[in-house]
Structures are given as C-alpha cells and as structure tokens.
Amino acid sequence: MARTFMKGSEAVAEAAVRAGCRFFAGYPITPQNEVPEYFSRRLPEVGGVFVQGESEVASINMVYGAASTGVRSMTSSSSPGIALKSEGISYCAAARIPIVYTNFARGGPGVGSIQPAQMDYFEATKAAGNGGFQMIVLAPSTVQEAVDLTVKAFELADRDRNPVHILADGVIATMMEPVELPDMMPEEKVKEIRESKRKWACVGHELDYKNRAWIEPGHWLTSKQQECNEEAAAMYEEWKKKDVMVEEYMVSDADIVLTAYGISGRIAKSAVELLRKKGIKAGLIRPITLNPFPVEAFEKLDYSKVKAILDVEMSIPAQYATDVEAVVRRRCPVEKCLCSGGNIMSREAVIDAVMKIAGQEA
C-alpha cells in the first residue's frame, strides 16, 4: 500500500471516509478546523453528507439523528467544543447509538488556549457526560496510529452500539507524517453495514414507531432503564477482557518505568532510548486504550525491582496519574513530569526527571 504525506486532522477524516463514514456534522474550532474542511470536500465525492451546524450542540444532535438511521456518522471538535457536545454524546450512549468522535485537545479550562494539551483525560474517561456511561477511549501517538484507530473506532462503535472516543491533541492534528491509508470500503459493504442495523435503526418503514423505542435515550417507551444500564455495565466489564491495547517498551528489565499516552507517550519513548544509552534501565508503558485501562501492564511489574514510575503528561494538575496511582497502589513511588498551558512536553525534561530519580546528573 502506497504511503502519502498528510496532516493528522486530514488523515483522520480520510480514514473515516474509507471506513464507511457517510455523515459528518461539526463546527469550526482550532486546532481541528481541517477536519470539517476536509469532510466538506470529500463526503460529497462518495455520496455522503457534510453539515456545518450552527453550533456544537446542533452538530452532535445531527450526528445522533443520522446515526439513528444506521449511517456511520462522526463529529470532531476540541476541548471546549467537546464540552458543549457532552449532552448529545450522553444521549447517544443512553440510546445505544454508534457514533465516533474525535477530540483534538487544547489547553483549558474554559476557552483556555489554542495550543495542544492533555487536560481532557478526566472528561474522556470519567465524565464525558451525565449519567455515568462509559466509552472505549483511544489515544494515538502518531498520525499513522490515528488513522488506524479511526478505522477501529467505527468497528467498535458498531459492535457495541455505543459511542467511541478518539482522544488526540493539537500536535497530532497539525503535524504531518507519512501514512498508509486503508483501502476504500466498497459501497456494497457500506450499504451492507447500514442494512445490518435495520432491526433497531429508523429506516423509514412501517416498523419505525416500534424501532423508535430503541433509539430513544434510556429506552423510555420500554420503561426498562435499569435493565439497560445493567446491560451497559456488563458490556463495560467485557471491554476489560478483550479490548485493552497497550505498548510496553523495554519494561522487562526496567527499574524506572515511564508511563504516558498520546504525544507524551511518543516523546517518552524517545527519552527511553536515550536513557538506555546513558546506562539507565528505563522502560515505557503507553496506553492505547485509556478506557479500558491497561491494568495488567502495571500489575505484572516486579515492584521489588522498580524504583519508581514516572507519569509524563501535558496537564497541570495531573489527571492520567490518578489512574496510574490507583493501579500501582503505593507499591512504588509515582513521580510526575508535567507541563501545561499549551507547552509541549520536552524530552529533555523527561530525561532530567528520570536522572533525578536515578540519583544522577543529566
């Protein structure tokens, strides 16, 4: 398969189209403006529909409606825009509607800054909306991984009839890298996927009133909200058994383990390679799924040998560290290397933090 040089935001949009996405609604916000811009040109070429909503709230509800008819549908935004979409996302979760959405995160809270950040971890993994629902949350560290995970996201959304969240950041959105794009899904397959959803989707036939019960949030017409919540909770538990994705790099003999996700994970990995050359036995645990969390990767560490775990993230206060600390359970110190306010993590800062733990000068 030929490689092509693409910006991350545009590569994600193209991957979605090739994965059968035929509806996108969104609203401009930096640093992901190229996503709707790309869809506005590309979707009409394949018989799809692009809508620039009058707001983020309008856009997510358009996606809710389109996905309710069985069409693979997507939206994207950045931090404060995602916050505005949270109610619509929770409606999709309650109604078990398969959608995919990407957050190319920026600094916050509030409007914050337009520079990259990783300050939406809690929002993505703990409270993406009201009601305690969960989603599979995917965190790419390269443009290629963003492409691959976009395709995966649509498959997972349809499998579970549940929203899937791709949590990236402004670095992934704006950087350009060589990527291999997936093959274009044949239109016959696109139609087949939509047809497979007839048993629950509203597709304009005489059973639509009956089907409406399945796409209303909480299944109000069936009066079985607790039963629906129990089914969803069981699905979340199944994710822990079959859907965890994690990169474990040089951890087998490591006595200092770095852990980071997304672009910070990529920076931390390069730091590990340089630290090894300095004689420091460093390793890396990089979650690819933030939810379900890679608990086992931390459980199998030899805590009699590991001096410390270093959390590397672009968030102050730390957020991802909370889950790390919960899994480590004080079996070793969890140190932190943090930046925020639109500052991109420095590899030198990571190396300095590790050297300090090791008791050496950088």
Order of helices and strands: EHEHEHEHEHEHEHEHHHEEHEEHEHEH
Ranges where pLDDT stays below 50 over 5 or more residues in a row are none
Our count of domains comes out at: 2
Radius of gyration, in Å, reads: 21 Å
Produce a short descriptive summary.
The chain has 14 helices and 14 strands.
How is this structure best described in words?
This protein has 362 residues and is an alpha/beta fold. It has 2 domains: 4-196, Thiamin diphosphate (ThDP)-binding fold, Pyr/PP domains (Rossmann fold, 3-Layer(aba) Sandwich), CATH 3.40.50; 247-358, Rossmann fold (3-Layer(aba) Sandwich), CATH 3.40.50. It contains 14 helices and 14 strands. The chain has helices at residues 8-18, 34-42, 56-67, 80-95, 121-125, 143-160, 170-174, 187-195, 208-215, 225-242, 262-277, 295-299, 320-328, 347-358; strands at residues 3-7, 23-26, 49-52, 73-77, 100-105, 136-138, 164-169, 176-180, 246-249, 256-259, 282-287, 289-291, 308-313, 334-338. The chain has a 7-stranded mixed β-sheet with strand order 3-2-4-5-7-6-12, sandwiched between helices. Strand 13 (308-313), helix 13 and strand 14 (334-338) form a beta-alpha-beta unit. The longest helix has 18 residues, at 143-160. The protein is globular. The model has no long low-confidence stretch (mean pLDDT 93).
Descriptive tags:
362 residues, Rossmann fold, 14 strands, 18% strand, alpha/beta, seven-stranded mixed β-sheet
